[in-house]
Amino acid sequence: MDLTKIVSISGKAGLFKVVSQGKNAVIVESIADQKRFPAFGHEKMSSLEEISVFTTGEDRPLKDVFKAFHEKFEGKETPDPKSENNALLKFFADMVPDFDKERVYVSDIRKMMSWYNLLLANNLLDFTEEPEEKAETPAVKDVETEIPAADENKPADEDVPESKPEKKAARTKNPE
Known about the structure:
Helix content is 24%, strand content 16%. It is α+β, with helices and mostly antiparallel strands. The chain folds into 2 domains: 1-50, SH3 type barrels (Roll); 51-127, Arc Repressor Mutant, subunit A. It has a 5-stranded antiparallel sheet with strand order 4-3-2-1-5, with no helix packed on it. A two-stranded antiparallel sheet has the order 6-7. A hairpin with a 3-residue loop joins β2 (16-21) and β3. The relative contact order is 0.12.
């Protein structure tokens, strides 16, 4: 699953797919209604690939949280993200047992659940494991090179012909 082209823009609801790069902006398309518009540099955009959830150990990538949702609900939508706070906290504790309860807010949980449901509804989630590509190194051929033996009767300086340095013409710009 590649989440690098799917972004969240602060101040705008929903998720957006990066379509193109403009001169001063990135062209994005809303996943919900497929409307395109420019997103400028002053707007804070975050790729879903870069987002992670605070845990008591190492932070967990959002991709792994979505995978836990997918496995728990067998490819169906999560419960209503607008449920009561305690129900959402309990639900999320089942999905990510080691999440940091002080730094992960209920609003964050709601947002992750709604993003998951939106991506699922638009068939943008793919949890099939892709085999890792092996780095292929080109085969090195064993090439035998023969080095001519030096004539023992000649001094070493005579084996190498003397070369004269070449003179290079100075280049000047033509002021036309």
